[in-house]
Amino acid sequence: MATPQKRRPKIFTVRTSRYLSPHMIRVTFAGPELEGFPEGHEGANCKLVLPREGESREDFDAHFGPEGPADNIHPVRTYTVRAFRKDSLELDIDFVAHGDEGPATRWAQQAREGSFLGFFGPSQPKITEFYADWYLIAADLSALPVAEATLEALPKDARGVAVFEVPSRDDIRPVEAPESVEVHWLIQDNVHMPSTAQIDFIREMAWPAGAVQTCIAGESSVIRALRDHLRNERKVPRKNTYISGYWKIGLVEDEHQKIKRAETAAA
Ligand SMILES: Cc1cc2nc3c(=O)[nH]c(=O)nc-3n(C[C@H](O)[C@H](O)[C@H](O)COP(=O)(O)OP(=O)(O)OC[C@H]3O[C@@H](n4cnc5c(N)ncnc54)[C@H](O)[C@@H]3O)c2cc1C
Q1: Ligand 1: does its nearest atom lie under 6 Å from the Cβ of 247?
Q2: If one looks up domain 4-120 in CATH, what number appears?
Q3: Which protein residue has the closest C-alpha to ligand 1 atom 51?
Q4: Is 79 in the pocket of ligand 1 (CB under 6 A)?
Q5: Does 78 sit in the ligand 1 pocket, CB within 6 Å?
């Protein structure tokens, strides 16, 4: 079967782009290409194919024949469907503004009305059934979109704890969550250094009784520590945990994905 990159992406056009906070950009795509986009896929991931600097839409489009691209000159990155509004055919994707070194963050920082990119997906949402006594949500900025989508999808009477790690106080934003979910914000200003803020918080917090379901994602070394804690110390069954490394300090996404695949194969 052809890999997603070998097929032809849809091309989505930017309607608006704005900073939600100093390190988070919301890009809203709109237009007839979003006709038929599935509802209820908030939190699902998608693959974004990024045009090269200065590339015209015609050249970008012409690059993808029916058999796929002639070569892999366009970087592909994984992002999350933050929101889709069927009535206005609008799709929101939130991008961490983490500097100039990544093509996706660079694209988002320059995105304006009329900017475009290629889109594959979406996949299935990460958590489709909520059956736990309480919920543990943990995320850095890259995983805030999946965490927010999960909080919004939880039953209104859900109980739980949400722990968000952000690089500055100004990145703290109101999030919609059930009343009985406590929301905690941790500040870690140097995102290029491995952080223990989330694992320290989760180790020390009072662990509620009953079955827990998790939605946890973020930097790979943080995720490794949290996964070990959940499996080995808290004995949380694998089926109740969505936990995933979304990026890794010092690695571009393709290298990080390669390591993740090797680890999954070895597990
Ligand atoms: C399922 C899934 C869903 C995701 N959803 C989102 C989402 O909705 N929004 C989002 O912003 N990200 C999301 N990510 C993470 C995103 O794919 C990576 O951060 C990706 O590396 C960004 O690509 P880039 O081109 O900006 O940087 P790359 O070219 O991949 O990397 C360049 C450099 O930037 C560093 N870097 C990458 N990401 C970050 C970061 N977040 N903070 C600091 N440094 C970083 C890398 O370590 C590397 O040194 C998701 C990842 C997965 C697996």
Answers
A1: yes
A2: 2.40.30.10
A3: 246
A4: yes
A5: yes
Handedness of CA 188, 193, 197, 198 (dihedral sign): positive
- Model pTM? 0.96
Q: Strands, E, within 82-130: which ranges?
A: 83-85, 90-96, 116-120
Nearest CA-CA partner of 176 in 149, 210, 196: 149
Structure tokens at 19: 């900073």
Poorest-confidence range of 55-69, 108-122, 153-167, 203-217? 55-69
Q: Is the CB of 249 under 6 A from ligand 1?
A: yes
- Which 3 state secondary structure label does DSSP give 146? helix
Q: How many CB atoms lie within 10 A of CB 188?
A: 18
Counting beta carbons within 10 angstroms of the beta carbon of residue 185, is it exposed (0 to 12), middle (13 to 18) or buried (19 or more)? middle
Domain assignments of the chain as residue spans, ordered by start: 4-120, 134-266
Q: Which two tokens stand for residue 149?
A: 């989508």
| pLDDT band per the 50, 70, 90 thresholds, residue 3 | very low
Taking CA atoms only, the protein residue closest to ligand 1 atom 32 is 102
What is the CA(249)–ligand 1 centre distance, in A?
9
- For the domain covering 134-266, report its CATH number: 3.40.50.80
Alpha carbon of 247 to ligand 1 centroid (Å): 5
pLDDT surpasses 90 at 34? yes
Rounded CA-CA distance 111/24 in Å is 13
